[in-house]
Amino acid sequence: MPAYLNSNPSSYDQQPHVQERDVEPSVKFRDQSGKSLHIGLINNMPDGALEATERQFLSLLNAASDGIEVCLSLYSLPGVPRNEIGAERVRNFYTSAENLLKSHSDTHLDGLIVTGREPLTPNLQDEPYWDSFTRVLEWARENTHSTVWSCLAAHAATLHMDGITRVRSPHKHCGVFDCVQLSSHALTEGTPLRFSLPHSRWNGLPEDALTASGYTVLTRSAETGVDTFVKQFKSLFVFFQGHPEYESNTLLLEYRRDVGRFLRRETNAYPLMPRNYFDRDTIHALTALQRKAETRPHEDLLADVSEILEMPSIENAWAPTAQCMYKNWLKYIYEQKQLRLEDSRNSAETNEIDGSDAALAIATAVPSTAGLSTEY
Length: 376
Known about the structure:
single chain; eleven-stranded mixed β-sheet; disordered C terminus
């Protein structure tokens, strides 16, 4: 069964999609008693990446659904700054995450995915959305079967819950890096012991601080440190410092964006090329252009960068691992949902039996008045 985007059916023609046959309006998602899950995506990504992020997660959930019907609903976090175009998309296709927090809300999510974004301040607690982020976290801990915290969201979540501060690296970790499994867990069942996943970040979380605070590290890269880790509450919290959802050209687009920032003199350092990503010819061409740009930075060179980046054909070699991990995630959520539904049914039956026993006891204790005259 595919994943569906739960959006306003009247705006279906504008919905982000995997393929036309894979995405349908929310009216298709009706059978809550069947093998189905309702997943929320709180998309905090910058305006230029909003649609791409929607597509990436919808595509990944679609590939990982494995017989489970997945309804994906889009949510926005209050306080996240948006330009006019981004704000319009949020108004048209997103629901405020504040709706999840209302006590009278009838919205139920089985699982939640929360993305990060480039921070505006050195201290994450000073971000304009910090208050709404922490309230969503506390809600998710009690009201979802599992929640995924992606990249910066993972950093913010561990800072709020355990005071773990991220550490900035001398250079940006950008590329596709080898990772190894460290712990056996339902999330990594069926994945290779060694695999590769994209990373794109300046900061990381110290492994010793995570383990000291009760987190279990599942996978690690020798080059970038901790990759995936978890912590069990009422909800299973899953943290990705990498980006299993990335498409084959996502790192390419990020690199072009960062080169553009240098050419416009918004940054002083030319960005490092994504590692283990481009073919040899592309690396040579980009290296030659970098020398030229560092000698004489000019925005016109961005056209040359774009021309070079049109050449490579990049294979999404991490897709099978990403799909396996998210398939396991959906399976875990579905199993937890069924267990809690069974507990609810058992509880209801117990209450019904207790009520019947009490009624029978009352009836037995009260003498019958049949055949007796009533005096007035």
